[in-house]
Amino acid sequence: MGIWFRKPQPERRSLPRQEMSAPPSFSSIDLSSAESSLQSVAVHSSVDLIASLGSELPVHVYSGDGAQRVKRQTPGYLLDPAGDGHGLPDWAYQLLMSWLLRGNGYGDILATAPSGYPTQVKLFHPDDIGGWIDKDGNPVWTVNGKRIDSARFWHRRVNPVADRIQGLSPIGMHAAQIGLSLTTTRYGLQWFADGAHPGGMLTNELTDLKPEQAKTAKDRFMAAVRGNREPVVLGRGWKYESIQVAPEESQFLETAGYTEAQCCRIFGPGLAEILGYESGGSLTYSTVEGRSAHLLVYSLNKWLRRLERVLTDMLPRPQYARIDRDALLQATTLDRWKVYQLQLSTKARAINEVRDDEDWPAVPWGAGPAPADPPEPEDKPDDEPDEGEGN
């Protein structure tokens, strides 16, 4: 047929690819495991952003309020609540992830203080826990199907519902949206990988091929190109053209972008825009500080408050834990110094407090507010007459 090929390669058999006449159904998506939803890029990015920021921000311990507030030494056990050597950031990340994915945090109380508050808690995987209220109104908890003593069981929930012992799972409430995200991703992968459109056309401009001849030419061409990157030599009249389909034409990017933005909104407003998803709005940020402030106010602060309450429950009264939100609002050097100048001029902060924010050592004269600037000298009246006066 006028086609010149190199030496034929041994035949390689592979499983036939399934023709895609319709998108795959939700039946292939399993969200029974907390981690399965993290296959969605938007879900993973959103929960990781919240959990990472919440666990990495500095934690301080105080007592008193207002002018009587005093910073206390953080207890050693609070620096490693699980007692496994991984520290508070690791423990806080686990707890936040459990809340974000399943709406509940569970743990085994390994140690308590004499006054009864827990000082060491080992967290459980949320999918290993079962809980209900028995006929006497008492909570019953199981770990991998085995009942555990309620006295040593630790439970903190979010998204509470009346007459339910467990909080609502964000993944369970929005399973359809997350399933759509995963289904769209798989459909797009199969579209471009499994040949929902032909990859190219092999044509002959000199003759009309019979079906048998076309099949033979196709088989020989596929045998020549499969499994290697060597050039193919075509005879007179033969032409091969690769078919390129723009992703925009297949509408996958548009559908996937909208779906991923919706998944981000499960965990708080503004996350979709911060993570770069097109949402159809006009929300823009002129500074990094403005973006961080939006994230803190609308999405992150509620998770920080919940974590603060958990850490406060592990402290003796009247001490309480506070997460340093100022560490999130990273301003430029110029903006930061403008704030310092305003704070010092209004005597809102002491010099050493500002120096501590900059990781500078304290100075002996910096314990109090900055001294007021000396007043500018007033212009004295000119008693001498100008030239020409008095004549």
UniProtKB/TrEMBL annotation:
<feature type="region of interest" description="Disordered">
    <location>
        <begin position="353"/>
        <end position="391"/>
    </location>
</feature>
<dbReference type="InterPro" id="IPR006944">
    <property type="entry name" value="Phage/GTA_portal"/>
</dbReference>
<feature type="compositionally biased region" description="Acidic residues">
    <location>
        <begin position="375"/>
        <end position="391"/>
    </location>
</feature>
<feature type="region of interest" description="Disordered">
    <location>
        <begin position="1"/>
        <end position="28"/>
    </location>
</feature>
<feature type="compositionally biased region" description="Low complexity">
    <location>
        <begin position="361"/>
        <end position="370"/>
    </location>
</feature>
<dbReference type="Pfam" id="PF04860">
    <property type="entry name" value="Phage_portal"/>
</dbReference>
<protein>
    <submittedName>
        <fullName>HK97 family phage portal protein</fullName>
    </submittedName>
</protein>
